[in-house]
Write a sequence for this structure.
């Protein structure tokens, strides 16, 4: 009897297993038959991708450049990090780019790429990115795909809500994620509520020189300002910042900063702030920070130490800033293409609240306030909210728009993208992300005119999606087709560093402006040599300057004698080539820095302090030509007290 | 000689002024590493690259096979040719004033001879560059010379060289043909 019962169970299990197996088999067969995903992402050899995708390098401090729809990686741009591949941050010309008021900092945590805009549409001139750890904002020139400017943000810590730009790139914003005493001060950490403050910074991009300047800062209560977006269209004079930790906790924030039902979105009228600045309402706060930029003619960093900043206090500036109550530690704040709807990613909330800009203006006019925080009026939630998206997935973070009336929100905890309709707030589609999606990106998806077509999921965890590479796995993005009613996963592709935010733009808006080489005639580097005839070695005390040229396939000079232990040797190398794709590298045995990669027409300098007597070969480290292996030379290093004379030559 | 013919001789001579503004000959080089192409343009008064740095790039490539660098200053013809052309234009205009048909024949014959000499000179330069190679060149292919074709295309190692007349050559041809035609039609009328 007992045995029979066991047999029955066994048979039932067998049935269930069979049915499941067959249905999975059918499912797989079906997807294999219905799929033309491979065709959709295939970019034939010799043809181009339709879009450039710029992904943040996260804790690598860099930025990745990819093609869409192929997911092919083109370049990693050095931003806040030294790069041994190019010598960025190692060469004498580029070291200055990483200067801060804390000294030379060759690393940062880069989160949010943001394309420059004209009329609220990406224009392909620049892309900005924030440094979170030691607050900085960098500008990358998309003619060169190189970092050409970095400005430090004083009176801030954790520059996270940055570097979002206004409609015509008038301003680039920055903020304080970790509130700190302003100005910095030696106070007990427990005096947080009393002493800690936040700042929201507006960096002006000069429309003529295209250089950045920290125009003003607004002192705000010591909450944690998390993300931002500038308005557009009707709301173009405004910028919006989410905040969390309105509890003002200073320890165990995961519990203590998650208590309030609602935190705030700060709505700032930057036009008004500009006006107050003009009226002289700002105080000058002495603050130390650096502004570094690459001079176009010398190809060298200019590093300027600044000593003060203009600060506006909301108490003196009515009608400049309002708080919009928003559920549960909101993360992303995203403005729809029309500029009317402001979508909050209430990461611990069960709905996505969507605020209305026109209701915001009405609420301000009719003074529908619910108290204030140090002079900043708090608006009534109901007076501003336009609607709530129900069942949006767990942990909604960020929203992008397709320009066809739909919004796409990433949900971290439920690991999915949720598509919903603007106006009716109903969810119309959802697709899983593998795994734990953070940001997401639609080409132009935060602008006035999204280019649409794809959404890219930027995931925090990859687990089993790729071949394993030990405990540290690749970072990952996923390409999803949004041209139809239903989202459709097309491709997984690995990314360099952690992809936080990313932005994409049609390739046609950038590729034709791409620089091929630098004109040698325009090279104004003080140590440039324009021809081999000018190549030479000069000594002044223990400083030796080697004025060297590189060209296929030799350096001039390539035999150097009379260098002594204890000398400070500078190799100033000018790449004389005037052709596309012919950089030369330079490295010498025992150098304590990194290779320098010298673009055609550019002069780069690497410092070398030989410590031991001997013969030191140097060579071209970037395969340049058929006789690349022959592109080498020798330096003779003699004892400090030796009488070997300085001598240099090329050929016999 | 009819007034119409004289007018055409004058206009044809004036047409030659345009040869100062366009190249006479072009040599285009195609190689796998140069998808965007490399090219030389030979003018009355100068030798230039198709793109701003093509000449430098071509000389850079040529040094591997030991070819002399192509330099403006080492080619005296580039100084002489503008004078010759100026003389032909001025003499053409002068001839248009006289009703001497013989002078026109003389002018035409001189021009054709100059053209042939010019082409021969161009061939000699090509021969020089292609054969007179530095014995210490890094790349030496036994039996290989690098003379570009005078007319047409030729494969030189990895490079396909295409040499063809350019706008100014056609202008000269048109000018000569116009004059020949008008003289010929004059003659026809006379025989009638």
């Amino acid at each position: 009897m007992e045995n029979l019962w066991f047999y029955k169970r066994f048979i039932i299990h067998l049935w269930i297993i069979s049915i499941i197996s067959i249905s999975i088999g059918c499912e797989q067969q079906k997807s294999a038959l219905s799929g033309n995903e491979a065709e959709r992402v295939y970019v034939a050899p010799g043809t181009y991708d339709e879009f450039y995708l710029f992904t943040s390098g996260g804790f690598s401090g860099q930025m990745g450049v990819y093609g869409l729809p192929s997911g092919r990686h083109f370049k990693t741009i050095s931003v806040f990090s030294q790069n041994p591949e190019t010598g960025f941050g190692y060469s004498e010309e580029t070291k200055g780019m990483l200067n801060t008021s804390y000294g030379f900092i060759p690393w940062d945590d880069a989160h949010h790429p943001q394309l420059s805009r004209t009329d609220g549409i990406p224009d392909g001139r620049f892309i900005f990115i924030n440094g979170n750890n030691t607050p900085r904002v960098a500008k990358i020139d998309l003619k060169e795909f190189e970092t050409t400017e970095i400005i430090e943000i004083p009176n801030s810590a954790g520059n996270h809500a940055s570097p979002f730009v206004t409609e015509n790139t008038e301003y680039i914003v920055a903020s304080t994620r970790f509130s700190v005493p302003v100005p910095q001060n030696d106070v007990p950490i427990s005096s947080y509520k009393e002493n800690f403050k936040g700042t929201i910074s507006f960096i002006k991009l000069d429309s003529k020189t295209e250089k950045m300047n920290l125009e003003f800062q607004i002192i705000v209560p010591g909450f944690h300002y998390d993300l931002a977006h500038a308005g557009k269209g009707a709301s173009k004079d405004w910028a919006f910042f989410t905040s969390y930790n309105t509890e003002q906790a200073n320890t165990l924030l995961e519990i203590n900063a998650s208590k309030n039902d609602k935190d705030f979105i700060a709505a700032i009228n930057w036009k008004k702030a500009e006006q107050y600045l003009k009226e002289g309402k700002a105080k000058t706060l002495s603050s130390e920070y650096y502004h570094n930029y690459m001079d176009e003619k010398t190809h060298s960093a200019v590093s300027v130490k600044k000593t003060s900043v203009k600060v506006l206090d909301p108490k003196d500036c009515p009608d400049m800033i309002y708080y919009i109550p928003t559920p549960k530690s909101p993360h992303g704040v995203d403005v729809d293409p029309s500029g009317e709807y402001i979508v909050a990613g209430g990461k611990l909330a069960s709905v996505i609240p969507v605020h209305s800009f026109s209701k915001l203006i009405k609420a301000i006019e009719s003074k529908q306030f619910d108290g204030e925080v140090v002079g900043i009026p708090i608006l009534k939630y109901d007076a501003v909210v336009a609607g709530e998206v129900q069942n949006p997935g767990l942990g909604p973070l960020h929203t992008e728009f397709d320009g066809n009336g739909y919004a796409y929100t990433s949900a971290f905890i439920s690991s999915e993208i949720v598509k919903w309709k603007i106006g009716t707030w109903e969810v119309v589609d959802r697709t899983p992300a593998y795994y734990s999606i953070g940001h997401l990106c639609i080409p132009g998806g935060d602008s006035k005119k999204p280019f649409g077509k794809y959404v890219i999921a930027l995931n925090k965890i990859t687990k089993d999606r790729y071949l394993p590479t030990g405990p540290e796995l690749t970072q990952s993005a996923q390409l999803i087709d949004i041209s139809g009613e239903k989202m459709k996963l097309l491709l997984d592709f690995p990314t360099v560093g952690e992809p936080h935010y990313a932005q994409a733009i049609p390739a046609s808006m950038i590729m034709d402006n791409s620089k091929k080489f630098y004109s040698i005639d325009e090279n104004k580097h003080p140590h440039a040599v324009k021809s081999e005839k000018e190549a030479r070695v000069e000594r002044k005390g223990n400083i030796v300057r080697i004025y060297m040229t590189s060209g296929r396939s030799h350096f001039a000079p390539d035999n150097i004698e009379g260098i002594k232990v204890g000398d400070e040797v500078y190799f100033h190398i000018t790449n004389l080539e005037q052709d596309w794709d012919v950089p030369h590298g330079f490295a010498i045995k025992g150098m304590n820095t990194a290779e320098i990669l010298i673009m055609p027409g550019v002069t780069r300098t690497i410092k070398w302090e030989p410590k031991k007597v001997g013969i030191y070969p140097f060579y071209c480290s970037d395969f340049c030509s058929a006789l690349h292996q022959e592109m080498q030379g020798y330096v003779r290093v003699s004892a400090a007290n030796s009488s070997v004379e300085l001598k240099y030559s090329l050929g016999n | 000689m009819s007034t119409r013919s004289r007018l055409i001789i004058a206009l044809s001579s004036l047409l030659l002024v345009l040869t100062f503004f366009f190249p006479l000959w072009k040599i285009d080089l195609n190689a796998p590493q140069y998808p965007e192409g490399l090219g030389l343009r030979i003018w009355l008064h100068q030798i230039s690259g198709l793109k701003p740095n093509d000449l430098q790039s071509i000389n850079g490539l040529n040094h591997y096979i030991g070819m002399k660098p192509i330099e403006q200053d080492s080619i005296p013809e580039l100084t002489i040719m503008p004078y010759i052309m100026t003389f032909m234009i001025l003499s053409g205009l002068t001839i248009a004033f006289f009703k001497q048909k013989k002078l026109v024949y003389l002018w035409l014959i001189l021009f054709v001879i100059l053209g042939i000499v010019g082409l021969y000179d161009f061939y000699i330069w090509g021969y020089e560059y292609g054969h007179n190679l530095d014995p210490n060149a890094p790349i030496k292919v036994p039996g290989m010379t690098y003379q570009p074709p005078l007319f047409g295309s030729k494969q030189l190692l990895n490079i396909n060289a295409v040499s063809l007349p350019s706008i100014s050559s056609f202008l000269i041809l048109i000018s000569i043909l116009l004059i020949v035609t008008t003289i010929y039609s004059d003659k026809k009328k006379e025989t009638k």
